[in-house]
Amino acid sequence: MNSQTVCFVAGASRGLGLALVKELATKYPDAVVYAGVRDPANSPALHTLASRLPESKVHITKWVAADKQANDAVAELIRGKHGHADVVIANAAVTKSSFAPVSEMPIEDFKEMLEVNTTGVLVLFQSLYPLLKASTHPTGAKFVPISGAAGSIDGSFVSEKVLAGLGASKAAMNYLCRKMHFENEWLIEEFKAADTVGELSKNLDSISKTPEDTARMLVDLIDAAKRESHGGEFLNYDGSKNPW
């Protein structure tokens, strides 16, 4: 990354989001990382991280998924200080009723997952779109939605009695983000499947990587990403491809 590479991580208070902020801020000395959280005052781990880094390295910023006013405010803050954004990671997500079959899925839970996991990514992209387009980073502007294997309609989760709501919301997100790739030839847009870490993994008893391990692999992959090889692809954190 070059000097003053501007990054934004949505959903940064804990887990993978927090690990991504730490990895970006420590791996690249000249990176500036905006950490988007719903409640900045109630994000102790993020404040601890920021206090251990050089001043102005990590900016803890109020951000609310799918709230256009909040997303526009983040965009205006970054625009005023930098005029551009180089890497935007849409990490925030919610999982509810993980073990409910479709016939019993609470509608309000499903609506919330669509709001956060699908609409939230769309609103973030629209608000930060002009800043990404203004990037002059030598490796290109990068928009990275964190998806998951559950979002594959040809994957193993479809035949299992888990994650119906999460999978549907991530599949819808995948479609929108693949459209972003084809509509914007200047953008490097890549999906990352990272739902094998954090609370979801605890629910499924299948933790395979720590958030820190996954963050390191994701940032390495993001750093190396090129439009012709990574753009519009549904990739695992190790670079392998997921079925759509």
Measured between the Cα atoms of the first and last residue, the distance is 30 Å
Put simply, the count of helices is 8
How many separate structural domains?
A: 1
Quaternary arrangement of the chains shown? single chain
Short descriptors:
8 strands; globular; 244 residues; alpha/beta; 8-stranded parallel β-sheet
Describe this structure in words.
Belongs to the short-chain dehydrogenases/reductases (SDR) family. Keywords: NADP, Oxidoreductase. Pfam families: adh_short. InterPro entries: Fungal_SecMetab_SDRs (IPR051468), NAD(P)-bd_dom_sf (IPR036291), SDR_fam (IPR002347). It is a single chain. With 244 residues, the chain is α/β, with parallel strands linked by helices. The protein has a single domain (6-231), classed as NAD(P)-binding Rossmann-like Domain (Rossmann fold), CATH 3.40.50. The protein has eight helices and eight strands. Strands 1, 2, 3, 4, 5, 6, 7 and 8 form an eight-stranded parallel beta sheet that branches. Helix 2 links the parallel strand 2 and strand 3 (58-62). The protein starts with 5 loop residues before the first strand and ends in an 8-residue tail after the last strand.
List the helices and strands and how they pair.
Blueprint: E1 6-10, H1 15-27, E2 32-37, H2 44-51, E3 58-62, H3 68-81, E4 87-90, H4 107-133, E5 141-147, H5 164-183, E6 187-189, E7 191-193, H6 199-204, H7 211-224, H8 227-230, E8 234-236
Parallel strand pairs: 1-2, 1-4, 2-3, 4-5, 5-6, 5-7, 7-8
Helix pairs in contact: 1-7, 3-4, 4-5
